């Protein structure tokens, strides 16, 4: 009566164990400010909530909602892709609504990976890319994202035999945790790489509408031929401040959408009809609202970058994502000194200031030496965090 062997290779989800540590700190009376998770603090647009309420009042909206999402939701996703990216997708065959994109990322691994197969995953990267492979009994082979290359992978250094062996490759731009962005040229090279290596290119793009200074993140599906080799994931969690609502989407190669749908129809039974109706509203009415929301993140990120500078960390606002990815200084000339791991540094910041940041190691080996700071707490709390950073002794010469 023991759990399955696959759990032996599955490490605990990094944020789950960390949250317990944060809860302990709060129980000891520390007034914690959580800047570790990308959990939007603001609500969605009013109209979205109104649609949810109205739809929930309809007696017929409480039954099983169907496996592939309502046709209205698939149509709204297709229209969003048309309007936002100039991409035409078939709502019946190339789109699948998800119970949050994380669910889809992991179920896609179950759909495409057999035991012993290989998935190429970025390091640093969002943990479920590798965890999905492990759950499928496959192997996650990392490729590095280096600061000197703008956190884009150097595709030419991925060994051809490994690429040949791999069934899937994960990319994520705008990137969590680094905030890096990829232009269409890079995405076109990635599509070409996927075609030559005969692998499914999975692009995870939940931050494509969290952007600043006029930057517009492209979709991988804008690349000619991407629909033949790729699938893109997106989500209303960050796009529309709806993380708790659990609404995502997979858009891309029909065969991959079908395979994902086959797994899902055996695992879940769709999601609540009022949520789907609200998602239609969120997707169709969010232009100006998104711009105003992003302006709030932008100001918070600037504030946070200033606070981090006070403790000797240099981080500048990225063009997208609500995150600052800050290197922890290690050389002897730096004010903080050496010897920190990202986890011990984050722990020290928590103890000294009550501010919770995410250790870079949560995102893989290459995340060591960094912390990720999220602008998803209220502006008042962020101002308080900056005040505490400025008042702290971290980074002062001894
Ligand atoms: C890169 C990336 N992909 C996917 C997700 C999951 O989003 P969702 O809430 O849609 O499951 C996140 C959440 O933080 C993320 O950072």
Layout: helices, strands, pairs:
Blueprint: H1 14-27, E1 33-34, H2 46-56, H3 71-85, E2 95-98, H4 101-112, E3 118-123, H5 128-135, E4 139-144, H6 160-165, E5 166-171, H7 184-197, E6 200-204, H8 226-229, E7 230-235, H9 236-239, E8 248-252, H10 254-267, H11 273-284, H12 287-310, E9 323-327, H13 342-353, E10 355-356, E11 358-359, E12 370-374, H14 379-391
Parallel strand pairs: 1-10, 3-4, 3-5, 5-6, 6-7
Antiparallel strand pairs: 2-8, 7-8, 9-12, 11-12
Helix pairs in contact: 2-11, 3-11, 4-5, 4-10, 12-14
The protein binds pyridoxal-5'-phosphate.
Describe the structure concisely for a colleague:
With 398 residues, the chain is of the alpha/beta class. It has helices at residues 14-27, 46-56, 71-85, 101-112, 128-135, 160-165, 184-197, 226-229, 236-239, 254-267, 273-284, 287-310, 342-353, 379-391; strands spanning 33-34, 95-98, 118-123, 139-144, 166-171, 200-204, 230-235, 248-252, 323-327, 355-356, 358-359, 370-374.
Task: Describe the 3D structure.
This protein is of the alpha/beta class and 398 residues long. It has 14 helices and 12 strands. The protein has helices at 14-27, 46-56, 71-85, 101-112, 128-135, 160-165, 184-197, 226-229, 236-239, 254-267, 273-284, 287-310, 342-353, 379-391; strands at residues 33-34, 95-98, 118-123, 139-144, 166-171, 200-204, 230-235, 248-252, 323-327, 355-356, 358-359, 370-374. The chain is globular. 41% of the residues lie in helices and 14% in strands. It folds into 2 domains: 5-43 and 288-391, Alpha-Beta Complex (Aspartate Aminotransferase, domain 1); 46-286, 3-Layer(aba) Sandwich (Aspartate Aminotransferase, domain 2), CATH 3.40.640.10. The mean pLDDT is 94. Helix 5 (128-135) links the parallel strand 3 and strand 4 (139-144). Helix 3 runs parallel beside helix 11 (273-284). Strands 2-8-7-6-5-3-4 form a 7-stranded mixed sheet, sandwiched between helices. A 3-stranded antiparallel sheet has the order 9-12-11. A two-stranded parallel sheet has the order 1-10. Residues 38, 100-102, 126, 172, 176, 204, 206, 235, 237, 243, 248 line the site of pyridoxal-5'-phosphate.
């Amino acid at each position: 009566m023991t759990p399955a062997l696959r759990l032996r290779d599955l490490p605990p989800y990094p944020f789950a164990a960390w949250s317990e540590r944060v809860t302990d700190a709060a129980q000891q009376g520390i007034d914690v400010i959580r800047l570790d998770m990308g959990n939007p603090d603001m609500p969605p647009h009013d109209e979205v909530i109104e649609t949810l309420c109205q739809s929930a009042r309809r007696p017929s909206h409480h039954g099983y909602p169907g496996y592939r999402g309502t046709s209205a939701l698939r149509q709204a996703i297709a229209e969003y892709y048309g309007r936002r990216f100039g991409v035409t997708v078939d709502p019946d065959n190339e789109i699948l609504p998800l119970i949050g994109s994380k669910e889809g990322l992991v179920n896609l691994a179950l759909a495409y990976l057999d035991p012993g197969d290989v998935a190429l995953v970025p390091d640093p990267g969002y943990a479920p890319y590798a965890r999905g492979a492990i759950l499928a009994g496959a192997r996650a082979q990392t490729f590095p994202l280096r600061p000197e290359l703008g956190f884009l992978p150097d595709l030419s250094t991925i060994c051809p035999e490994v690429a040949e062996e791999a069934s899937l490759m994960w990319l994520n731009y705008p990137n969590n945790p680094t905030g890096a962005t990829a232009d269409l040229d890079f995405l076109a090279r990635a599509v070409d790489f996927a075609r030559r290596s005969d692998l499914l290119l999975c692009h995870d793009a939940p931050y494509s509408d969290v952007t600043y200074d006029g930057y517009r993140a492209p979709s991988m599906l804008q690349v000619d031929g991407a629909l033949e080799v790729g699938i893109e994931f997106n989500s209303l969690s960050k796009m529309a401040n709806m993380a708790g609502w659990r609404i995502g989407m997979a858009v891309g190669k029909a065969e991959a959408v079908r395979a994902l749908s086959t797994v899902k129809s055996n695992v879940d039974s769709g999601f609540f009809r009022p949520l789907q109706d609200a998602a239609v509203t969120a997707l169709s009415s969010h232009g100006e609202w998104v711009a105003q929301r992003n302006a709030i993140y932008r100001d918070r990120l600037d504030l946070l970058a200033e606070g981090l500078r006070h403790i000797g960390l240099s981080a500048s606002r990225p063009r997208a994502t609500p995150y600052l990815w800050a290197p922890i200084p290690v050389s002897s000339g730096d004010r903080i000194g050496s010897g920190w791991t990202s986890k011990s540094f984050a722990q020290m910041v928590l103890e000294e200031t009550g501010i919770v940041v995410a250790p870079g190691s949560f995102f893989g080996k290459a995340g060591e030496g960094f912390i990720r700071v999220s602008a998803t707490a209220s502006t008042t709390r962020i101002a308080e965090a900056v005040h505490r950073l400025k008042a702290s002794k971290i980074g002062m010469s001894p």
